[in-house]
């Protein structure tokens, strides 16, 4: 009989923190530019002062753009969390930092499946490449998302001692095609849209017992470096 999913962590937490840091950085750069620029103008260096003000404004705009992207990423993770609540897994852990990784795992879904889910907010037809990179529509996704998903699944498997394999899943929110299995140097990665994420997870092989999954999800939160 199905029991309530055990939830650990908060979806999008790291993205929200990143957005806050970038917002603070942008306003700080603008404030410094205004103060230093005004001081230079008063001191008889109007050209340098205006250049300093312009540099501060440019940094502010760039930081604001990056903060908006981080907010959008957090929103995508919240949308995915709404889908994951319907998977009826034993446990889901969000925004998990594990040893050996440069980024957090967006979602770890356990019981009876075992999957590490990397969530990317992008739209259009998705094209995957053997070096781990991905394009959605006309845009190249940052970094190597397929390789990132593989590394995250491996890190989860190392941390959870009672599971032999963790499936790597890359969720591109607005992917137009149906889900597909992509081979990256001999390792399989499921690539899916947000719409089909639940279906993909429900069809994964059984990897871990439900009681073990709940214990493992709690332990993952304690494994953060």
Describe the structure.
There is one protein chain. The protein has five helices and ten strands, in the order βααββββββαβββαα. It has a seven-stranded mixed β-sheet with strand order 1-2-3-4-8-10-9, with helices on both faces. The longest helix is centred in the first third of the chain and has 39 residues, at 46-84. It is α/β, with parallel strands linked by helices and 225 residues long. A hairpin with a 2-residue loop joins β6 (134-136) and β7. The chain is elongated and about 75 Å long. α1 (13-42) runs antiparallel to α2 (46-84). 46% of the residues lie in helices and 24% in strands.
Question: SSE layout and pairings?
Answer:
Elements: E1 6-8, H1 13-42, H2 46-84, E2 91-96, E3 105-110, E4 114-124, E5 126-128, E6 134-136, E7 139-140, H3 145-159, E8 167-175, E9 180-184, E10 187-192, H4 197-202, H5 210-222
Parallel strand pairs: 1-2, 4-8, 8-10
Antiparallel strand pairs: 2-3, 3-4, 5-6, 6-7, 9-10
Helix pairs in contact: 1-2
Percentage of residues assigned to helices = 40-55%
The strand count comes to 10
Q: Would you identify the regions where 5 or more consecutive residues have pLDDT less than 50?
A: none
Task: Give the count of helical stretches.
Answer: 5
Keywords:
225 residues; single chain; alpha/beta; three-stranded antiparallel beta sheet; 10 strands; elongated; seven-stranded mixed beta sheet
Short description:
With 225 residues, the chain is of the alpha/beta class. It is built from 5 helices and 10 strands.
């Amino acid at each position: 009989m199905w029991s309530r999913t055990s939830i650990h962590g908060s979806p999008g937490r790291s993205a929200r923190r990143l957005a806050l840091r970038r917002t603070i950085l942008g306003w700080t750069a603008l404030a410094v530019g205004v103060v230093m620029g005004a001081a230079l103008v008063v001191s008889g260096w109007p050209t340098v002062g205006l250049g300093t003000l312009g540099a501060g404004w440019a940094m502010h705009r760039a930081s604001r753009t990056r903060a908006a992207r981080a907010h959008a990423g957090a929103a995508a993770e919240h949308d995915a969390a709404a889908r994951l609540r319907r998977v009826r897994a034993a446990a889901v852990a969000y925004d998990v930092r594990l040893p050996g990784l440069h980024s957090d795992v967006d979602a770890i879904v356990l019981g009876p499946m075992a999957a590490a889910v990397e969530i990317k907010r992008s739209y259009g037809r998705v094209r995957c490449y053997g070096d781990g990179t991905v394009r959605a529509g006309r845009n190249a996704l940052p970094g190597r998302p397929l390789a990132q998903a593989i590394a995250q699944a491996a890190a989860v498997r190392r941390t959870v001692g009672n599971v032999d394999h963790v499936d790597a899943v890359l969720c591109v929110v607005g992917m137009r095609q149906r889900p597909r299995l992509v081979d990256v140097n001999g390792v399989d990665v499921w690539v899916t849209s947000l719409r089909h994420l639940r279906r993909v997870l429900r069809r994964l092989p059984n990897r871990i017992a439900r009681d073990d999954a709940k214990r493992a999800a709690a332990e993952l939160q304690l494994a953060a470096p």
